[in-house]
Amino acid sequence: MRMLPVHPDLAGLFPWGGLRRGSTVSVHGSTSLLLALLAAPTAGDSWAAVVGMPDLGVLAAAELGVVVERLALVRHPGADLPTVIAALLDGMDLVVTPRGRLTDAQTRRLSARARHRGAVLLTVDPWPGADLELRCAQAQWHGLGDGCGRLARREVTIQAHGRGAAARPTRAALQLPATGGTIAAREPEADLIPLTRPPVQHPTEIDPSAAGGPFADHHLLARHLDPVDHRHSGLALVPHAVGAGAE
Is residue 86 over pLDDT 90? Predict the structure, then answer.
């Protein structure tokens, strides 16, 4: 099989309709998107490996549909990172790695290795010669109330551009994650929270007894959150009067 499947709502980003074996795909700005690309292949009979990403959340991966029984983690590959990636490309269907300290010459050799072995190389950050680049261009959160509540879903716009058949830019408007933690097409209308920094009071002027307490500036909080950076896909916030915390 020369193609690995992707979620139907992601298929339009790929000129081949899925992850073409032997290709290198670079993902920018969203670990959620990176994990979502592993979901459909691992739900079949494909195996994936993640190298050099020690903070990756396995629970977050599972919530996005990744079958973690077919996911190998090499959190600390050591000094010989190119050799570790090359060995995994020999035996895995998909290999995920950050660019890190790899030189341009090493990235080219690893992409050539993926082509020769028929594996898919998924990379974080810019990667010279990538066949396709996916970039999270816009993101908006939905779900927080007036200083309390739960982040329910994130609405994003994904842009795709690459070489050859992927030279024509495309985009997709998605919920990533959707309510329930997976992926879905964007709803036409939603009460969204823009990820921009609004004007805030000086800390000495904030009234702790005001509604919403210390989390009244939930816009600023949402700006820094990607659900895969946490053990759960949402963050529960409660007013200061009953104790602030996260689930």
Answer: yes
Single-letter amino acid, residue 123: T
SS3 36: helix
In this structure, the number of other CB atoms found within 10 A of the CB of residue 191 comes to: 9
Task: Please tell me whether the overall predicted TM-score, pTM, comes out greater than 0.85 for this model.
Answer: no
**Do 177 and 233 touch, CB atoms closer than 8 A?**
yes
Are the CB atoms for 169 and 161 separated by under 8 Å?
yes
Token pair 């879903």 is at which residue? 153
- CA–chain centroid gap for 4, Å, is 18
Structure token pair of residue 193 = 């929270």
Q: Could you give the 3-state DSSP secondary structure of residue 114?
A: helix
pLDDT single digits (tens) 110-152 = 999 999 999 999 999 889 989 999 988 766 666 666 666 676 6
Name the maximum alpha-carbon separation found in the chain: 63
User: Cα(89)–Cα(121) distance, rounded to whole angstroms?
Assistant: 8
